Amino acid sequence: MRSRFPNKWLPYLLLLPTLALCAIFLYYPVIQTFRLSTYRAILMGLHRKYVGFENYVRLFTSSDYIHSLTITFIFAVGVVVLGLSISLAIALLANHKIRGARFYRLLLIWPYALSPAVAGSIWLFLLNPTAGVVNYFMKVLFGISPDWLTDGRLALLAVTIAAMWKNLGYNIVFFLAGLQNLPGEILEAAKVDGAGPWTTFWRVTFPLLSPTTFFLLIMNLIYAFFGGFGLIMVMTEGGPNKATNILIFNLYQDAFRFHKWGLAAAQSVILFIMVVALTLIQFRTTGRRVHYGGQ
Known about the structure:
Strand content: under 5%
Mean pLDDT: 86
CATH superfamily of the largest domain: MetI-like
Strand order of the largest sheet: 1-2
Radius of gyration: 23 Å
Largest sheet: 2 strands, antiparallel
CATH class of the largest domain: Mainly Alpha
Low-confidence stretches: none
Number of strands: 2
Oligomer: single chain
Helix content: 55-70%
Number of domains: 2
């Protein structure tokens, strides 16, 4: 039986506060950002000159911006692919029924509760070339002591690992929830049929986890493009030599350090379109392999 409101205007009245907040703090800023991207703006955008698509042309003809775009995709692949793979492996181990399992699971989740600034500071100390724990073990095991944050390639690797670690708890929570809600009879049937652990995982467990995996794929993609700012700000500030200057950090620098508001607005529009496009591609490709009937 369908429920009905006593007054046809009551649903709209109840939605009005939410719509008003969305309009003020979401829709209006988005429209203004698109508009500002077509201007050359200075002094916090108070003085503007209409330039059309000149800001976009400047970005895509800038070697620094293309470099930042490349670095961002490398960073995103590391965070999404490696991060999800490691998270799933840990979740599979944490799903075993052992003594103190709840305590161990809690320890796995806590990094996500840290702020990006705190997480970045932790990794800054861990990777310290003289007093860091990482270099201590590297020296003992391999006889080397790399300077993680002054070498461009190592710096990108370091911030990627830090970003993966920061989001690890989030991924593990969802993977654990998915694993604990798998239908036990299907897993038992696989064992009865003689399937080994590896076959069971690839033929049964992983396909049944497809809704969870797909959701985390989208969320980690968004995190990789927008959530790495705090870590990079604390650890490298985009260096050395712009080796970790991902798009979101480049946008911040142009807006708040160099006060190129029109250029920064154009970058935010490009970043928004990129994330939307990649998400739609994932829905068109990966989304077709998602089966919701198994959970």
